[in-house]
Amino acid sequence: MTTTRTAHMSTDRTIISETDWKRPAVRIPTTVLHVVLLLLLIVVGLLPLLWLAKSAITPTQDTLQHPMALFPNGFAWANLAHAWNDVHIGTYFVNTIWVTVGEWAVQLIVATTGGYALAVLKPAYAKVISGLVLATLFVPAVVLLVPLYLTILHPPLVGTSLLNTYWAVWLPAGASAFNVLLVMRFFQGLPTEVFEAAETDGAGPFRLFWSIVLPMSRPILGVVSVFGISAAWADFLWPMLVLPNQQIQPLSVRLPAIASQTDLGVYLAALAIASLIPVVIFLCFQRTFLRGGGLGGAVKG
Amino acid sequence: MLTRAELTEQAAATGRAAVSRPAAERVRPRRTPITWVRRGGLSKLVFTLPLLVVFGVFSWWPIARSVVMSFQRTNLVTAPLFVGWQNFEYVFHDPIFWVAVRNTGWFALLALVFGYPLPLVLAVIMSEVRRLKGLFSVLAYLPVVMPPVVSVLLWKFFYDARAEGVFNTILGWAGIPPQPWIQSTVAAMPSLVLQATWAAAGGTIIIYLAALTSVAPELYDAAEVDGAGIWGKIWHVTLPQLRGILFITLILQIIGTAQVFLQPFLFTNGGPVDSTTTILLLVYRYAFTNSLGGNYGAATALSLMLAVFLALMSVLYFRLTRRWSDA
Amino acid sequence: MKSRKVIAALAIAAVGVGLLAGCSSSSDASAKDGKVYLTVAPVLPGATADALKALSDRVKEFEKANPDIIVKPIEYQWTGTTFAAELAGGTLPDVFNVPFTDSKTLANNGQLADITADFRKTSTAGKWNKNVLDVATGKDGKIYGIPWGPYAMALSYNREIFTKAGLDPDKPPTTLDEIEADAKTIAEKVPGTAGYMQMTSGNTGGWELATLTNSLGGRFETIGKDGKVTVKTDNPQTKQALAWLAKLRWDDNAMGSNFLFDWSGINQAFASGQVAMYMSGSDVIGSLMQANGFDQTKYGVTTFPLSDSSDAGILSGGNVDVVNVKDSPAQIAAAVKWIDFYRTQPTVDKAAAIKNAQTLKAGNQAVNAPTLPVFDKATWQQNQSWIAPYDNIPTANLKPFTDGIFDQQIVPEPSAHTQDLYGALDSVVQAVLTKKNVDVDAQLKAVDQKIQALVDADQG
Question: Which ranges does the record mark as transmembrane (chain B) (predicted)?
């Protein structure tokens, strides 16, 4: 214990020093504070989920009359089956994944190709375009709700409405100035010598992009992915508008729509299944998630 | 949004220092289509194309259109008609508009009071945890992992105003009478903010935790040499070191809360008595909830005003950080 | 590595999009194989498995009789707050329903298909009550839809809760005062249950307030001799209605503790026993069984009480099945056949009525949900006698309504900017239920001013 702690300390320390920690006047209240905080976090972070898990298998009337009682009249395992078979949670979950994967891919393609063109290839019009992209940073997507919706109804070039196709959620996600500028800045920071060496070796712009720039930009692609995936996962208003066909809706759109037409027990079971999957993924990859969250801060800072 | 990207500029600046771009100094041959292609013009265009198309169609064009539309009356059937400032007048004369502005401000303020200092305090305490640190982080982050819609729907049930409601049952244990939560014009907005804070605090805590580990240990050592106690170290080292990140989260939060939609839409649909109708919800109502066709003009006019406000916030932020980083 | 994954993901995405595009385009074209494809919308979101089974049987029956038509039923529920987006988006199915209040305006805006020719070919074309068919007739005199399921507003109640509270479920309240008294008793005897509640959200607050106002002899809108519409919700009857609600809420505390209910929200609250009495369409048991799996033996319904005023009447409404304006002539013909088969025939043709009743009964769907006649009382009564053997809602439970409804004067919904008016009144109803001592007069005046401006903008 002591050795690891000292080893830890040498690289990175916090406000309370080892000397402080040895004083009971510091150690005891801090420890108490930590225990209290742990209990608080359990109540606030974990209990709602446990409650949801419990209610997912509790008969509706019990949940309505005694929401905090533990199975006063036994279980209702059938809720889960109903949620899966009648509410088709699985289908909507797959739809959610589709939405997310597509948005993520479009964002990465637009940001990497665009960032590469603007930062490395630098066509004459690069300045103008970066300026225009930068300008859109000032306009959050939600205020474009109506014109964007009308654009989806009558997109230029395509000719047919994109409504009820996943393109309607994927493509607008690509127009993220944040991503493009982030990637662009990163590419600008890459050492030019590498590009020059590659050019001397006869590598064209495509080889350069594919074999040199992309492999070097993993960290920034990770950041773009974290933001992109979490935003896509959370999105509600936009998919609700452009995916009215319930067969292709993600969970975020479908769950509110059936809220008042589904038996409460079954509904809570559906909510539980919908949260279970991300929670399990989180618990399995918690390091990545937490580092990603922190990374977000690092990028923001 | 803006804020993040602006910061990336700073982040990238570090890398940029070592780089000198030679491309601009090259001698240009005469321009013909063939030399253009040979000089890589085509591949440049190919790489720019996805960005041009996606931004053109889904960003630049809708922005231009929204400016035009806010001066038009459109019903999607007949040709749009220019009506001058009428849409803006309509919005300004709608009593709900002022209610929505006030509600959005109230939401933002409450979100600051509930959600701004708390994660910082928790993060500072958590950073001192010596055992099971990971467990603390995981617990704090769990609400963030839940899909936001699911967490709102779950809380909607928690907020059941009957004495048999989840929260009211818990209050009952402490002898507190049942509260109306989202069923009251007074309590609805704080209830919405409470859920929003619950859902978001974990993410902010993790960001602060990361920022706390990046505070240089030497600064604490130096403060101790100067005889600073724990509070002294927090006040003179930790907080100043976190100043940048604190300011960023503040601006991001204001920009985020100005666009709040999910909570009022799913919890209360703006009620009771429009006590939770926010600006974006009003935009949505103008555009999409009249069964015989939306008032797209008013909706875009209101969006435009919101966009101008957010842009001003962003510019303000931009300038302030510039001044700080220069100083 | 990462980039390869990206490419792989992209490839998958591209394939997915291809599939998707394939799926979405198949429904709108009638076609390649000489068959007519028709998307219809008779299922509420969240329909039970039984309901889907019953529907699928009906679809099979229709397809057997019309082998060249392929029917695809989808979920759909008209709500005042979501319809516009679907209309603007062009995502409505081939056949969908709109309420009586909206069909005329949509038709006059050119947003519905003209079905006159195909409608004339149906066996009942000449039988329609002119007043009923009028809601689906445009100002050009053409027919744009087929009305069905007209209903009167009624008082639904939970018989089980009545018994629990010591009330006689066979003697439901017959005046507003009795509703109040019973609601108070229930709230006292069955804690956690709202004695009486009504809708407040998503334009339904105004709809229900209109019902109360009409039942007391008032009207929201009056049409002058010159055809000019005057909006006046600031009238004595509306104020009386709001005062009645305030009394139930604040003096009697008989309305429970949740006050934000839309149509489906209150259905759910009723089905789960949180609301004992509420105001809704007389046919709502159909939805309660279809979407909420409610046990119909607990269900009771009675006429909503009218005051002694000679103008007192019961608000009525109904649905019109209409056809997508983008449909091909072949689709329109098929659509009319479907509507006739699904909605009209079971009311006039004995064999169809019995077949329909059998299917519904097998699927545990409401057979004898009380509605108003679409043609005339005699046809309606005859129809009731055909399906009587299959009735699955105890007729005794419906008796208070069916006995009284033909004595009530029917009042249509306000005609100008109905949904805007209802939406504006939501707030007033919510105010009365969530705040003590609200200045109702000022609020109603503000609503009048707002809606009158919209009406004048149309007329001027």
Answer: 45-63, 106-126, 138-158, 192-211, 242-262, 296-318
